[in-house]
Amino acid sequence: MLIRSLIVVLAALSFVAAAPVQAAKCGGGTAGALVGGVLGGLLGAKIDGGRKNTFGTLVGGAIGALAGGAIGKALDRCEQEKLGKATETALNSSSTDGGSSQSWESDSRPGVRGTVSVGAPVTTADGRVCRAARRVNYIDGQEMADAPTYCRTPPNSGWALQAA
């Protein structure tokens, strides 16, 4: 299962690497769908329990591709990176009493900006540390918001987006 997941990741990365030059200059859509699909597929496989059944991988990949594609159409690659860094910074804040907020702003499009706010860390019964987030982005005068939850299992320091 791990080898199959690795092959899927490498194949998707080859598509991203072969994207046109325009995408390298912060193009959105396709790269967002590919990355979202790969990450969703890996998350789905993990949720599926590593069984030799690919159902979780397929469902996670489809959901990830839809979400990544929608964000990718609204934000270019550089803006997606800024949103990702803001999310990571907010999640890794040491605030334990009320949470943390981190803002970002586009370098290329006026008025495209966002804020990521996370709540205080909560330890679940299975030992995971989770933080609820609220991401509010403004794109072309429209507000786009979502409220994902991220968890990690100590001592692992990486945050993983939880399935809704």
Describe the model.
The chain has 164 residues and is α+β, with helices and mostly antiparallel strands. It has 2 domains: 73 residues, no CATH class; 66 residues. Helices cover 45% and strands 22% of the residues. It has 5 helices and 7 strands; from the N terminus they run αααααβββββββ. Strands 1, 2, 3, 4, 5, 6 and 7 form a 7-stranded antiparallel sheet that branches. Strand 3 and strand 4 form a beta hairpin. Helix 1 packs antiparallel against helix 3 and helix 3 packs antiparallel against helix 4. The longest helix has 20 residues. The protein is globular. It starts with a helix and ends with a strand.
